[in-house]
Amino acid sequence: MQTTTQLDNEIIKIVKSTVPIIEERGDEITSRFYKLMFENHPELKNIFNQTNQQKGAQSKALANAVYAAAANIDQLEAILPAVQPIAEKHRSLNIKPEHYPIVGKHLLLAMRNVLGEEVATDEVIYAWEKAYNEIANVFIGIEKSKYEQTKEAIGGWVDYRDFKVTKKVVESDVITSFYLEPVDEQPFVSYQPGQYITIKADIPGEPHTHLRQYSLSCAPNAGVYRISVKREDSIGGLPKGIVSNYLHEHVSEGSILPISAPAGDFVLNQQDERPLVLISGGVGLTPMMSMLETVIKLTPDRKVIFIHATRNGKLHAMKDRVKEIVETYDVTSYTIYDSPSIEDEGTFSKEGYIDYDWLTSVLPHPDSNFYFCGPKGFMQAVYRHLKKMNVAEEDIHFEFFGPAQEIAG
Length: 409
Fold this sequence. Notes:
This protein has 409 residues and is of the alpha/beta class. The chain folds into three domains: 9-152, Globins (Globin-like, Orthogonal Bundle); 161-259, Elongation Factor Tu (Ef-tu), domain 3 (Beta Barrel), CATH 2.40.30; 276-399, Nucleotide-binding domain of ferredoxin-NADP reductase (FNR) module (Rossmann fold, 3-Layer(aba) Sandwich). It has helices spanning 9-17, 19-40, 50-55, 57-71, 80-92, 99-115, 122-152, 242-250, 285-298, 319-328, 356-362, 376-388; strands at 161-170, 175-182, 196-201, 210-215, 225-230, 256-259, 276-281, 304-310, 331-337, 350-351, 369-373, 396-399. The strands form three sheets. Strands 10-9-8-7-11-12 form a six-stranded parallel sheet, with helices on both faces. A four-stranded antiparallel sheet has the order 5-2-1-6. The protein has a two-stranded antiparallel sheet with strand order 3-4.
């Protein structure tokens, strides 16, 4: 697609000159942006995750994206790797071209509000308006292609489609699986292991619709979608997991859930025959299970190391299924409990956390393909360990739940 900017040199110069101030005050600008936009367009609360808004995660993600775009406004192809996962999320949330002018208008208003007219002059705002339109066109073009691919796929659809919960299975004290099949009983599109779906939840008593993404936790082509959802408690006064708890407490077999077609670019490379290492923490287990189930089905001779960290056996989901796989295939499994109970004795590989010395003792040669998912701190630690092991960057694959965050923390 076309990523060569149509901006003249003066516009580029002005935008790039704002990079230091955007980097310094980006969080303020994006926080103000969301406040202004929701005041003027409250209907957009039906699209944006309001829990992430309160945590500040969404503003930080947007600030980073704005900074990257400004720094590369003269070579927009440089931001394409960052655009792809955002565009996948936008497609799963059914973001449309008509949303972009609304975002642009309020982003410019927020810049002027925060920076003041002496910094955000008419000249600067004009330059940023032109730049934003260029950046928006990149997103719109990529998302258009993704919508078309989804619609044209066998069993594919755009927007939301009603699925029925055909089975609900308690996997641990905090994780429950939901098996989903289309209400219309027509074919539905397959997916790549690691992808997710978006659930649209209209919850009684809630002022707006909630959209949440959940990784698919079984191998594709099983005649069903399966998501495995962790029940969330409130943390530091922030709301508990509104949708996850709604699913646990109020959704049962026979319930109808509107969902979007599978999306996401954190997917297993099924052509790579090298050893595969899957590392998960907590509910980060879900995309790893999809990958594991896929490998044993399609390439059963491939060497796999499956590492899962959780608090204890009561919170350890799908352990019986992993044990069954280990007994049948060339899969080695390690379990790390940081707070094991007496009942857990003899059922786990290590107490505490995944540290560098232990990880290097159980892993094959660094020339393997590594995938990991879990809480932010867990992922940052795993990333540091792999980099210290001199694993090539192209062999390190990860995904944060929710907005993108810094992995090298």
